[in-house]
Amino acid sequence: MPRIKPSILKWARESAGLSLEEAAPKVGINDARGQSGAERLLALETAEGDVSRPVLLKMAKVYRRPLVSFYMSEPPARGDRGEDFRTLPDRHTEGEPLIDALVRDIRSRQAVVRAVLLDEEEATQLPFIGSMSRENGVGPVLASIRQVLNLDLAEFRAQGSAEAGFALLRSRAEAAGIYVLLIGNLGSHHSAIDVDAFRGFALADPIAPFVVINDRDAKTAWSFTLLHEVAHLWIGATGVSGGHFEGSTEQFCNDVASSFLLPSRELAQLAVTRSTSQGDASQLITAFAAERLISRSLVAYRLFRGDRISENMWKGLAATFRTEWLQNRAAQRERARGQDGGPNYYIVRRHRLGAALLNFVARNMSEGVLTPTRASKLLGVKPRSVHPLLSGAALPLGSGPINRIPLASGM
């Protein structure tokens, strides 16, 4: 068995965002022989030595790296998460390793989906991926998205709730060939990623495009984030999105999403101006947003972009809305603790994974293309949970054909 290079141990720990003091007890290296656990771990990271199998297995789990990666000859270059569209306030140092790990995980799932489609000669090119650019303008990009996804604002609002409206938009995106996942952690609440650090990201692949939405965000924001990330796909921009909108690409994708959810003619009806107090503006925006199944923060942002309120007012309203949402979420969780039962694990998991990925896995398992082990990697569960999870996987993907272009033979 080849020895583990010290540089690999250091790279794996640092890329997981852990200090020596934090990592040592987690990987089972405790104080011994007059040395602290941190000192013993440092010794392994600075001079070649024998790392026991149990410690190595714990490192793989704690550092969120496959075991084989510890046998590399040198640390790899930092994983490609695409362009980072977030501005500095969004980049929380403590959350960056979690975001990198999440992007790695989704990229690995996407690679499997892409490979299976190619191997089974089912791969076709989605013509809308990267079909436009910011130079085309917000209107034409939105018009193309509307046409391909068969979007209708009246139908969206007729769903009656923000969650049902999102379900409609998601089904249309999945019917067009986009895999839409709701993920806000790496498998447990201990690895939760704050929405201030990341709200969503898009992988603009023409065969297997993925959109991930942080499900820790308010449900009223999910539709906006989905459309925002879909706009990223349309302009071929892979990357991570945050909550601040200063970047030109972020502003463009925000304008595309918000123009669908809130047309300018309707915003003009909202009686909020620079002379309106923040308290009055908050009340008016709350009622206005509820009628349209959108978030209050979106309305405030559009008012700011239209020079109807000041930047200070916009940021003040956004902070107020977030505080109120966090308080409401905490109250809901407290009430849930006092109630028996709760959503079934598999129902929740299926909702997060989406019909497109579930149906893909179910179909390819039934045809013998995917093993339970490989399927478990795609679904983010243990192999024994695959069959119970797929027992309800025959989910609708919306209506209408998927508009694809066949790949040239030999690809």
Automatic annotation (TrEMBL):
Protein name: Peptidase
PANTHER family in the cross-refs: ANTITOXIN HIGA1, BLL0069 PROTEIN
Start and end residues of each HTH cro/C1-type domain: 8-70
Organism: Edaphosphingomonas fennica
Classification via CDD domains: HTH_XRE (cd00093)
